[in-house]
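pasting for ref
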Amino acid sequence: MKHLNKIASVFCVAAMALTALTGCEGSDMFSVNSPDWISEKIDSINAAKGNDNALPEGEEDVYTVGATDYSSGFWAAFSKYYVIPEGKTWNAVFNLNINPSAPNTFKNFALILASDDDRGGANYKEYGAIRFDNQPSGNSEWGDYIDRSGVVSDLTFETDTDEGVQKLGGTVVVTVDRSDPNAFSVKITNGTVTKTYKQSTPLPNLNPDASNTNIRAFLVPEGSYINFLQSNLEPIGGFTSAEDKQPMSMELHSVPKKVLVGTSLEDAMANVSATITFETGITKEVPAAELGFVAVPNMDQVGVKTLVAIYNKTFKNENCSTPIAGQAQFSVVDKMFNSLGATDNSTPFFGAQTEAVKVAPHETQVMQFTNYTNGGNNWENFLVVMVNGAGTEYGVTRADCFGWGTAYDGKATPFGAPENWATWLADMDGAKVTLYTTNNGDGTVDIKYDIVAANGHKYHMGYTGISGVDANDFFVKLSLEKAHLEFDSVVGDENNTSAFFGALSNVFDVPAGKTVSTQFVNYTAGGENYHNFVAVLVNKANDKEYAAVRADNFGWGTGYDACTHACSWEDWGAWLAAMDGAKVQLSVTNVGNGTANIKATMIGNNGVTYTQTYNGINNIDANDLAFKLTIEKAHLVFDLPFANSSFASARKHYSRAHRR
């Protein structure tokens, strides 16, 4: 990362940057480099290869897709969109750079064919994908509209670890042919390896407007990168020429929302990147190492800061005439997570309380936190407070097998008391607690909590027989005495870079006939609709998956196809923007007949409530159901419990609004 000299010109740029905000959330971006491309290049290649392998004519379109260190995973980098009208043929020429150490045959690229909409759009649907490698026993082609029997290649791999993937590198020509009204074909060749796909029928129209017969094509590398050279059809956003250009504007990505006090600016912004827009609209993604950073005010004190990022290079990486700047805000904090109670454990009895969370009949509400204690007495820990909607107490339970109230006195039975209370009390300082509050639906309540101490000691404690509550008007909240609770359970990297299934939550059992709910805050990179939480239905041993469903009305698995899924919104752009910091209550219901339902209620950062449902997921073992949470380019924080009475009992039907 560059260190900026404190010279007037740089701070003039920084000062100007403070007058205008730049958006901080990303989208599908391709990076643009500047290879030594000249118009005679195509002629020289054609001359070397001979007329049989002559490259098609086209306009220069020079940019790079994928990380040049071969680190791009699948669906992480994308070419531009190329729209192919009915009756037309698309010819693309590019250099495919294969990692010399590539361990798998699929480390090349895939051609994606889709409807005429952006990825993540409401009308985006895929015909399928065709990779350059050919592995009949694997998935070198896929999609509902791709007939693999139509594939022919002169290089076939038996397994994805066969040698020879390097043969796919070099100058590649992709041809997507829609010129025949009664057929469709694709050809991919580098002069050494040729792969074709042919079918005797045209592609059906997947666009909702029958008059729009366009399809889109784009390229996705995996473990490789593409230096694009030319196309005969103009892409969305226009062609990219090889001439040098001045930078015009900047969008920042992956700016952390919180930075711990004492962290250097360089370390705090190490994962930041920026999309630079140059003259004529060309874009290039640059890492933190190519940016200069200033924090205003400085990082020494906690509080909200303005980050100014400065870039001073042209398209061809020369010094530019006028540097550009982008801006974002972040906070310097003395602790990374929200907490309940003073962190010195001085808060008196009932001196801090969370909001009350409604627990519906036959529902279990799960909460997770870390308990810190003054350590003077057993009761100086967390408290569970049971109330009705008006705030009237049913009863209170402590962490140490004691409680009171009309629903507790003479009725409740504590369990799990430790043999040595002194050891238990010492273990409670920094202990991870998972709390389960169950409304049995008949006026009784069960409370249990699993405790894992920092030293590994485990405790299973709780109460049965709590009774006399109104099952339809039952809420629970947390309090404490001379303790504090930190809500620091996180799934995924906080910079939203975790890959698909890159982090997993605990597994929560769901008994037959019951609903289990948990709350969390969802943070997203914002690039795609699916860059959010994923709920996965599994068995209790967590070695069998029934189904997985995303936040954006899409899922998969043996039990998924039978379900009815619906969401309450139509504006996908507004919803995606609202999901960064959205409060989510996710509920899984084990119907008890081999089916399960999932409901996610999301309070967006815009205050709007969104609802996503999946009903009738089948092929479930009713006696062996659990769920876990995962993410893709997002992270989840099991934060302070939040009031949910406005939607906890809602049973509204929503029209279907498929993501794709």
